Amino acid sequence: MRQIVVTEIPYQVQKSKLIEKLAEIVQSKKLPALADVRDESADDVRIVLEPRARSVDPEMLMGMLFRQSDLEVRVPLNMNVLIDGLTPKVCGLREVLRAFLDHRRDVLGRRSRHRLERIDRRLEVLGGLIIAFLNLDRVIDIIRYDDDPKAALQAEDWDSPLPRARSEADYRSPLSAKGQAVIPPGIGMTEAQAEAILNMRLRSLRRLEEMQLVAERDALLAEREGLLALMADEGLQWKAIAADLRESRKRFGAKAPGGARRTTLEIAGETAEITPESMIEREPVTVVLSEMGWVRAMRGMSSARASATRTATRRASS
User: Which residues form the Topo IIA-type catalytic domain (predicted)?
Assistant: First the structure.
């Protein structure tokens, strides 16, 4: 008996519900061409369908099952969207794709601005660390002897710092007697730089190498210039979006591991109705007509002919 084996089912379709539906179709005889359905699944999906006759066209049978069960599903696409975030609108595919690209550009802009903010904060801290590396003795004196080291770090004139103090009596604070800075604002460290130095562990001082700090600063400055150029040039933005899409296709496309599409997107074709004649099994039959007017039909060819010949001879002699 010819069998049809189903090894894949549509996404989000429960196999148990599908088997129940197919069994209901068999019991109710909604599809006479289908004789039986069995679930032989183990780790993978294996649903066996048995046609009622060998003459049943498998393509025609599957077409009818697609219409009457969830072996094939249609996913509706709701194109009523909020293009501007406020007004609902039914859009075509071109408008939706354009909105997607505009969204990608908006994401690129927000991501670039966020990265610029982080770069600016890091550059500010690096500036303070470079000052601390170049004036390490004075920084240690301020932290050791000053009553308000944070304010003192901000008030110090790092272009002409004071000499190293041999004792607390030799220490000269950059703050006045009232605890205020004696230099114009903008010359000393910023609050973020002073906080970074005060929160730094002593064991990190040996890692404050000027070349590494300068190299990191130069790299961030170059990245900052690139981001500013990107935000100012629409052409560069679309090139960056195209590069991101190519990278996504490389990671999740058909050639990527596990990226091959499991289901196909196709236009549903016409399904022909199954006629009663298509369920009649086609096989060789031998029809025997005797001299006495007896008619007999037998399956097969060669063996049936021999048997029919003997039967016709016996009846003719009687």
Answer: 1-279
Q: How many CB atoms lie within 10 A of CB 174?
A: 21
- Pull the structure tokens for residue 209: 């190498």
Fill in the amino acid letter for 180.
Answer: Q
The answer to whether 183 and 155 have CB atoms below 8 angstroms apart is yes
Tens digits of residue pLDDT in 138-151? 888 888 888 888 88
Q: Are 40 and 46 in contact (CB under 8 A)?
A: yes
For the domain 93-252, what is the CATH superfamily, name and number?
Answer: Topoisomerase, domain 3 (1.10.268.10)
Quick one: 139 exposed, middle or buried, by C-beta within 10 A (0-12, 13-18, 19+)?
buried
Residue the block writes with tokens 């194109």: 79
Q: CATH number of the domain at 4-68, out of 3.30.565.10, 3.30.1360.40, 3.40.800.20, 3.40.109.10?
A: 3.30.1360.40
Provide the CA 85 distance to its chain's centre, in angstroms. Answer: 24
- Cβ atoms of 213 and 126 within 8 Å: the answer is yes
pLDDT in tens, 193-229: 999 888 887 666 666 677 888 899 999 999 999 999 9
Please name every residue paired with 205 in a beta bridge, in sequence order, or none if there are none.
none
Q: If you average pLDDT over residues 184-190, what whole number do you get?
A: 70
Closest CA to 171 of 199, 143, 131, 192: 143
| Whole-prediction pTM | 0.60
Q: Give the pLDDT band of residue 262 (cuts 50, 70, 90).
A: low
CA angle at 150 for the pair 147 and 152, rounded to the nearest 5°: 65
